[in-house]
Amino acid sequence: MATYAVLLRGVNVGGHRKVPMARLREALEAAGFDRVRTYIQSGNIVLDSHRDAGEVGEAVAAVILEAFGHTVPVMVRSAAEMDRIAASDPFAGRGLDESKVTVAFLSAPAPALAVPAGRPEEAHVRGREVWVYYPEGLGASTLDRSGFWKPLGAVQSTVRNLRTVRRLRDMTARTPE
């Protein structure tokens, strides 16, 4: 049995694609997942399964479609991957605001990405994750409009701030009760 962090993209944002977490936990348990937990309302799930990560992602997406009628991108990382991701923070030791450091979780390895010259953001590509520091905050940034993400093409992604990444790492690290 393995523990996974399951990250959904675009649920419960601005009143769109509503997925009540309590109902989601029930639906996932009914689908055979064990120790299903959620963190905040933005689609963060930790669960146990005998399935591999790919099968977990497909099954969770199918449950969401059946129970809520939404097709959403689903990124899955194992407990070991979450530990590695949190430990690989390229901004560690700088005392940055955790809400301004994000990790984009991707469905495939990222190509080379470069922040355009003169922009305040900093980015680091690490396999299937892209770390970005938004010194002025994500909401104030125009990095999305700069073409920075364009090389990802059809690669699916979802973004979490460093606080959430660390919380999910901690949740996946807990031993079964």
UniProtKB/TrEMBL annotation:
InterPro entries recorded: DUF1697
The protein's name in its UniProt record: DUF1697 domain-containing protein
Gene3D superfamilies, per the entry: SP0830-like domains
PANTHER family: BLL4334 PROTEIN, DUF1697 DOMAIN-CONTAINING PROTEIN
Pfam families attached to this UniProt entry: DUF1697 (PF08002)
Domain of life where this protein originates: Bacteria
